[in-house]
Amino acid sequence: MGEPESSSSSEGKVIAKEEAYNVTISDQRLLDLGYRPEFRREMSLFGVLGISFCSIGILNGMSSALQTGLFSGGPLGLFWGWNICSFFMLLIAFSFAEICSAYPTMGGLYFWVCKMKPDVPILGFFTGWLYSMAMVFTGISANLSTALYLSSMAEVGQGRSLTRLEITAIAWAVNIFSGIVNTIGTKAIGHMSTLFVWWTLGGTVSLVTTLLVKAPVMNSADFVFTNVQNFTGWQSRGFVVLLGFLQAVYTLEGCETAAQVAEEAVRAEILAPLAVVGSIAGSWLIGLAYLLALLFAVQDIASVQATTFAIPIAQLFYDAVGPRLSQMCLLVIMVSQVMAAITTFTASSRLFYALARDNAFPLKKQFMTLNRFQAPYWGVWTSVLIGCIISCAYVGSAIAFNAILSSAAIAVMLSYMQPIIIRVFWPDSIQDFGPFRLGKWSWPMNFASLLFTVFVCILFILPTAYPVDVFNMNYAIVAVGGLLVVITINWFWWGRHSFEGLVKTAT
Description:
This protein has 19 helices and no strands. By secondary structure, it is mainly α. α7 packs antiparallel against α15 (377-391). The radius of gyration is 23 Å and the shape is globular. 55% of the residues are buried.
């Protein structure tokens, strides 16, 4: 007679059966959409949520863009801009979550547009290419920001400024490191994204505590909630405060990244939309705590504006907590920035895979090839190569480089606009909804999201300083216009002959 099974062994078998059942449901959902499962489903809710958290990168995003709001509107613009923009970005997240639940597959915005408007293939082609380039450019920006944080740490700790060539070399190293981590595959990315959630929570507690305890002078509530600063040259206070909203929008972009790993998640039709909404809701609260600590602790905004450090927030830390603790604060943010950089290449490589699968990207066989770690390594290293090439522009002209990177934020918002427009003007575009559904609130949320997206796209291309000259002009519109021209040429030269819409891989 055999020995009875232990309770732990029985529980393990039950869990294994439940996981297998969930994987089967997720794979069947993908088959119903016309795609054969190619990736192992190894990501949990925490892993998928971490992907979106990584992409948003609340600590590094807010720290890198803080000066935009601090010099354009000051504390009042930063505080109210953060809450207003967070609210509207949450509406966008709800809109995306409903679509993502219906179509839990990689490709995200691109796939959604193609699925909801199959009779206009050019719309899906433009969305896919624009969004993929935006992801690559965002990754390049994150890699350079990592180098700038390291440069600021060297300035604070050793009084040595790194040259542009040295900063570019560091950005190259981060580019390549991002490629290596992404090549290891899904499981490594899932573990890293889970770590990022805890790093963000722990880092926020550390930064907030350090600022509030060590700042020699604490600002009043009146200063934090009502003070207006204007270093732009514009006379209209209302316009200046609106310019400060860009900091919040730039920081909060990225919630949709969870959709890029939907084919690698268990019960993606539930977990992916939860991650999309949860990442914005969590970032709103965490960002608010961090922002308030910065505003209460900032010693002299004029000092931050006149800083010689590579990243202006380094001056804020230096004035508030001293050189030694400043390095600790910058290190916490820099590690967060590295993980965010890795995630953007995760998203871009999966998007290249999805585009190639549908004949919307050249070298289909190569870009659909997975290595033994289940990583689409052609897409990964294409992102790395583009990042290294564009990073070289920083050596020659910081203005040109910044124009390329600022175009990424606009390209993301333009990509956001496509599925939202379809949901507003063709509300019956989704025939088979997933578990996450907005019901009667769907159209109002999509309409409000569309208005906000149009408003932000216009705001992103307006000049941020007056009088406007060749040094302070907002060249983002030139960069975005150039990108759209390249995509248009690509469509008429190649895309319209090869891309007809989504290509089913399952029969």
